[in-house]
Structure to design on (324 residues):
């Protein structure tokens, strides 16, 4: 009985013994023919036999049901069964900041240009109106590879390289690595990333720069970002300005991220210096333009709320998972 093939064969067994004219039923009916003193004992024996049989039938029915489930599971795909999640990883926060920034400019018609990390002294300095006595030209501040060539200290050389190859108007962004001889600490790394922007055409002014940067920071940090220009100096822009944006940590009220000022410094900018336009073959009487350079690590750190740049380069998967 325990290996009954289906419900029908179990039912046959039940009817054969316990049905209306089943074998046990008939025996029970014949109790009346026994001498009265023997009847209670016979009744008990029959009841016990019935209970036994019913228990065996129930066991057999359960065994049958579980064999049938087993068979069904082997031949069907259970689409409700929870799936395993493969470990897919994620974009690194630096890569993500770079792609988000480039995406913003690409949608506005800027071309993305990649330069070489090994640059000549001429494009890194001279063409950018950086005089021979500028401190960055010292071997102590830059990584020279050979006389006249070094690891670029900023992405700005691509301004001149691009203008030399393309007549105005020109609208580019340059994402990439730059190198400086800075000791590693919570805010400095000898290798870091920038995104450079350059727009040169007739009638371009600082108002255009402010509007474009405001849009960028709103895309990167949220809809209430503002831009603040602080007067500054770069040899290749005139006038020049440091670029700040509202601290996304506190919305401008002041917090630990912004050192209480409500603003975070994010890059440098200015109107392209006439000497740079001329060096690139452009006529400063015909076109004007602006340029900016923004720190990618700074963007990533603020967005991910980390206060040590080294966290971005250690690449501990547990930390990157948290950042993602
Ligand atoms: N190249 C400058 C830097 O690395 C930033 C900058 C870019 C400033 C373009 C003005 C215009 O600090």
């Amino acid at each position: 009985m325990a290996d009954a093939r289906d419900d029908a064969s179990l039912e046959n067994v039940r009817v054969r013994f316990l049905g209306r004219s089943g074998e046990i039923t008939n025996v029970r009916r014949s109790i009346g023919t026994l001498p009265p003193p023997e009847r209670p004992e016979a009744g008990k024996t029959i009841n016990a036999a019935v209970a036994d049989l019913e228990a065996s039938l129930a066991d057999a029915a359960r065994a049958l049901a579980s064999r049938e489930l087993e068979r069904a599971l082997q031949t069907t795909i259970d689409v409700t069964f929870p799936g395993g999640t493969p470990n897919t990883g994620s974009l690194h926060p630096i890569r993500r900041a770079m792609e988000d920034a480039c995406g913003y400019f690409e949608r506005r018609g800027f071309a993305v240009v990649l330069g070489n990390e090994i640059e000549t002294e001429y494009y890194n300095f001279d063409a950018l109106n950086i005089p021979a006595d500028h401190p960055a030209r010292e071997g102590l501040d830059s990584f020279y590879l050979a006389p006249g060539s070094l690891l670029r200290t900023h992405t700005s050389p691509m301004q001149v390289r691009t203008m030399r190859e393309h007549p105005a108007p020109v609208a580019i962004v340059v994402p990439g690595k730059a190198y400086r001889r800075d000791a590693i600490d919570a805010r400095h790394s000898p290798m870091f990333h920038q995104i450079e922007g350059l727009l040169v055409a007739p009638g371009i002014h600082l108002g255009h720069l402010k509007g474009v940067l405001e849009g960028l920071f709103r895309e990167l940090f949220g809809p209430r970002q503002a831009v603040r220009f602080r007067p500054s100096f770069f040899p290749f822009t005139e006038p020049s300005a440091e670029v700040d944006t509202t601290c996304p940590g506190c919305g401008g009220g002041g917090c630990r991220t912004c050192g209480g000022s409500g603003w975070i410094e994010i890059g440098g900018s200015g109107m392209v210096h006439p000497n740079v336009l001329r060096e690139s073959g452009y006529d400063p009487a015909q076109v004007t333009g602006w340029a900016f350079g923004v720190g990618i690590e700074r963007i990533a750190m603020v967005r991910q709320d980390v206060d040590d740049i080294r966290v971005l380069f250690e690449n501990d998967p547990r930390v990157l998972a948290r950042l993602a």
About this structure: The chain has two domains: 7-75, 93-323. Residues 154, 156, 196, 234, 237, 268-270, 291-293 surround phenylalanine (CB under 6 Å).
